[in-house]
Amino acid sequence: xxxxxxxxxxxxxxxxxxxxxxxxxxxxxxxxxxxxxxxxxxxxxxxxxxxxxxxxxxxxxxxxxxxxxxxxxxxxxxxxxxxxxxxxxxxxxxxxxxxxxxxxxxxxxxxxxxxxxxxxxxxxxxxxxxxxxxxxxxxxxxxxxxxxxxxxxxxxxxxxxxxxxxxxxxxxxxxxxxxxxxxxxxxxxxxxxxxxxxxxxxxxxxxxxxxxxxxxxxxxxxxxxxxxxxxxxxxxxxxxxxxxxxxxxxxxxxxxxxxxxxxxxxxxxxxxxxxxxxxxxxxxxxxxxxxxxxxxxxxxxxxxxxxxxxxxxxxxxxxxxxxxxxxxxxxxxxxxxxxxxxxxxxxxxxxxxxxxxxxxxxxxxxxxxxxxxxxxxxxxxxxxxxxxxxxxxxxxxxxxxxxxxxxxxxxxxxxxxxxxxxxxxxxxxxxxxxxxxxxxxxxxxxxxxxxxxxxxxxxxxxxxxxxxxxxxxxxxxxxxxxxxxxxxxxxxxxxxxxxxxxxxxxxxxxxxxxxxxxxxxxxxxxxxxxx
Length: 531
Prior knowledge:
By secondary structure, the chain is an alpha+beta fold. It has two domains: 2-37 and 488-530, no CATH class; 38-476, Penicillin V Acylase, Chain A, CATH 3.60.60.30. Helix content is 47%, strand content 17%. It is built from 18 helices and 16 strands. Strands 1-2-3-6-7-8-9-10-11-12 form a ten-stranded mixed β-sheet, with helices on one face. Strands 13-4-5-14-15-16 form a six-stranded antiparallel β-sheet. Helix 1 (2-32) runs antiparallel to helix 18 and helix 9 (284-294) runs antiparallel to helix 10 (298-306). The longest helix has 41 residues, at 490-530. It is globular. The chain starts with a helix and ends with a helix.
């Protein structure tokens, strides 16, 4: 009786052993790489993979080639974000246009007229490559092939919105600027303004646990756009330095303004109140892209950011150099651009100007009212977050590290409305360009659109928190990627895919047959022993 019971037990153990033999390596590799190497796609020297809510894109080479790789790999995502920007533009419209195609065509007209001559040839080639990469996939925009001008508009949608519609009257003119400043001030203190405010900080020296730079940034923007701002773009250009940024699909500079490069330069910011601006200047995106691609020092970064400053979309930039441990703050309006630098200390940026001259420039005659409201109105748009940030900085001063930075980004009200988080340090950045990223609110909450919001933005979805993940480019690089001709035939890909599937099927059949023979062997063996 005992021998008979051994048979099913033996069969079970045999199958377990076989499954262990044939799957243990792949299972271990899957656990090790579960945050990387998911849904890997590649094209020439570029590749794409999903990482815990993020889409990691690596592109390299000449401008057109890396643009082509980019467009090919995220073609569907680029078309999707264009439609989303159209919805956002319609709901935030200053003019009475409801048709998405007409909205896009209007923005395209303004982008070309106002900004095309301000874009360097390198970036124009990159954008042309993106358009061609998308067209190679056969994906259409409003039923037509995508054009270079569409990709140009995608980069500059917010610039056009500010310059042509929302802040048109703030183009340098003292009286109109003052009136606009008062109106914007009143909307903020009454809580009627948009709650789309980012938050960032940078610390070094005696402010941090190990004396190294710690930098963190969280984005806040309308979820119809933000839930697709999940691109981590890793660019290895022919000229300049390799850099990584977070952005939305198809953008060639960071819409979230989080950058880091292989020379240990960190660049991030939060947007300030719009002040006077001029059309005779270079868009912020171009200046920040130049700064991260070509800078080896804080001086370089500041020079690139200042070169051609047009005052449109003013910022407080936070800059760090992991090589030296120095950090800097640049409050950049059109006329006033104060710089602070230190090797010991903490700078924060939360959409509020620190410098009195910058404050006066951005808010005009209403600037003194802003200071009063900050002191007596504890729940206005600015003061709640800023007071909490100052409080938590004092609490963690001298103790700041990566884990404390995560805690800060997850603390209310700093986390209210946040759509992502990014953190790095000198030691992570200097050798391997490592950083930590969190897609969704860093406090772990899931954003669910209301019916009214869904009625306004039909493309919006539930926005879950995906958790922190380490982004390590050295682990992401795939050793088995082989260069592929950019003119490769899609039919060859299909045939190769079918061949791979057939190989997998043969492999599974072979293992199954082998398992069957082993099981039969043990059955016959025990039957013989039973006799």
